[in-house]
Amino acid sequence: MSKRALLEVIALDAEDAIAAQAGGADRLELVTDMAADGLTPSRADFAAIRAAVDIPLRVMLRVADGFAAGDVSELVRSARELRAEGADEFVLGFLDEAGGPDLAAVEAIVDALDGCRWTFHRAIDRAADRDALRKQLAELPGLDTYLTAGAAGGVDEGLPTLVGEAARSGEPGYEPRLLVGGGLRLEHLARLKAAGLDAFHIGGAARPHGWGRALSAEAVATWRGAVDA
């Protein structure tokens, strides 16, 4: 099995997906509406992207901007519809008003995923207590990744936290892989890789001309080379 580092890229549609795979992405995070920081794509969009590429797809489950769950029944319904379409990896994460994990919402959605693998996204960077959140979620089936910048302000601010958490890999609550994303830049990679981190997530970095323009296979290839260096 290949031990190269994971490069995950945000894709909005099949065109993005094809370009990201051509550039060397290992996995895609599928979302819609980046003005709201990424919401659940439609079943039809998932099907089109699944038909266009053969790399793994993680599908966002989120109905509104922010880290409150909102309509949990809608999230559960979307999860089931996407599962029926063939989706088998997901991204989700919600906080309660106190800044802890919204366990009722997360557990309801995870139950609908029926054992699928999933990422707890950057809600962890807004949590009141990151360590407590990890331990509260530790027994949930399928959780294998935390997407995190280490801090709400992004990787610049969160680097020390990321390095510290990487050193705790394997401890209770720290078994899931750290997927670094959120203000990630190429110059961060050396320190992150030196700390043992081996999974990286990009969105805007794959679109040098902005979200209104096509994803750049060349930009993804630059990241692929840097991640592998």
From TrEMBL:
InterPro entries membership: CutC-like, CutC-like_dom_sf
Domain of life: Bacteria
Gene3D superfamilies associated with the record: Copper homeostasis (CutC) domain (3.20.20.380)
Entry GO MF terms: copper ion binding
Similarity comment text for this entry: Belongs to the CutC family.
Protein name: Copper homeostasis protein cutC homolog
Source organism per UniProt: Streptomyces spectabilis
